Amino acid sequence: xxxxxxxxxxxxxxxxxxxxxxxxxxxxxxxxxxxxxxxxxxxxxxxxxxxxxxxxxxxxxxxxxxxxxxxxxxxxxxxxxxxxxxxxxxxxxxxxxxxxxxxxxxxxxxxxxxxxxxxxxxxxxxxxxxxxxxxxxxxxxxxxxxxxxxxxxxxxxxxxxxxxxxxxxxxxxxxxxxxxxxxxxxxxxxxxxxxxxxxxxxxxxxxxxxxxxxxxxxxxxxxxxxxxxxxxxxxxxxxxxxxxxxxxxxxxxxxxxxxxxxxxxxxxxxxxxxxxxxxxxxxxxxxxxxxxxxxxxxxxx
Length: 301
Prior knowledge:
Layout: H1 9-34, H2 44-66, H3 75-95, H4 101-108, H5 111-123, H6 129-145, H7 152-178, H8 183-202, H9 211-237, H10 240-243, H11 249-262, H12 268-291
């Protein structure tokens, strides 16, 4: 969980690709747990709790070994950020039970779009016509993926949209925290508070997981910790505008996992909607690079 200072774009790209593979893997495991593939289906609230518990244990063990320096955390900002992150993660895990992983992942790329839009009233940022155009393009792609009138698929897509909105709002708080505290501290405090919120929320729906489900829950936490570690270190080795596009590979990994494990392949609507979302998100990333302004991109769930 170190944050190296040496500028190394090649390694940053590889770390981001690894982060995208790990992040897509968490959604795959959540789908397996939530659809009954590994035993009686667990509620998304219980899956979310497992994600926070085991991610916190993994990051906490790293902290004990590395003993990084910590400053006094802003608990109000951390609590708000963690609540939004928990809500976004839970909605994403629920969405994965209803729609293809590629659709859920594509819709998640709206995070920075929502973050940009919310930065106007919350951070006082000004947004020009190019960035508004990028947002509109991405939202058109999301509208296609919701498949209006599609019943279960439309419901799952709305859950994914809710996840993107919550995680996009979380980006506002990440921006505020990133200038005050170190990345390791932010991750550790976030997951610690997330454990408390997730544990309280899942009490009414908890059932005993099977051994396979316990293994998958541990896998979700470990993969998430690895994804966050890779992403944080990638951001430390290259500019955010360079790193962000490589995380779009999560869409490829999600489609590959879904095809190999669940024999689900993207249809023409999925490909069209995802392509439009990627075009909008890519335009937004390009514009941010041209403006040379710091931007917090989508982080792994």
